[in-house]
Amino acid sequence: MSREPQIAVTVVRRFDASPERVFDAWFDPVTLGRWLFATKTGEVVRVEVDPRVGGSFVIVDRRDGEDVAHTGAYLEIDRPRRLVFDFWVDKLPDHPSRVSVDIVPLPAGCELTLTQEFSAEMAEYKERSKAGWGKLLDALAATLA
Fold first, then answer.
1. Which one-letter DSSP state was computed for residue 33?
2. φ, ψ at 141 (rounded to 5°)
3. Beta bridge partners of residue 86, listed in sequence order
4. 3-state SS assignment for residue 46
């Protein structure tokens, strides 16, 4: 990912689940297909995960008969504390972003902080991205409940 001027969105969620369960939900293909990039109007038709630094993931969501691929390349995996990956959508392949997921244990459950950094030229997506991650993390909480 280039190091041009960046903007960032941050979303914080608390989970009743352990840090390990929340972290592992980012790597299990069956679990991923239930929440990550799954939409009410779409259908996840493919999930591939190579869960290692240098590995990648692809999640394909079919919306109105059209496939949308969400792809990531893992940069840092520190179970159960931190996950960092470069991320892009096939419709905008020249505009990758970087996503960092930090998880801290709480007396009951954990708190997850997700930060997405992208180029300033993608600023129009900032609020949409923040809202989208919020919905996805809500779906993760429901999946883990």
1. H
2. -60, -45
3. 73, 98
4. strand
Rounded Cα gap, residues 59 and 56, in angstroms: 10
Q: Which residues are paired to 113 by β-bridges?
A: 12, 102
pTM of the complete model = 0.90
What pLDDT band is residue 25 in, cutting at 50, 70 and 90? Answer: very high
Residue 1 has pLDDT above 70, yes or no: no
Calculate ∠ Cα 106-23-87, nearest 5°: 125
**CA–CA distance from 48 to each of 28, 51, 77 (Å)?**
9, 10, 17
Where do we find the tokens 């991923």?
A: 32
Burial class (CB in 10 A: 0-12, 13-18, 19+), 122: middle
d(C-alpha 26, C-alpha 93), whole Å = 22
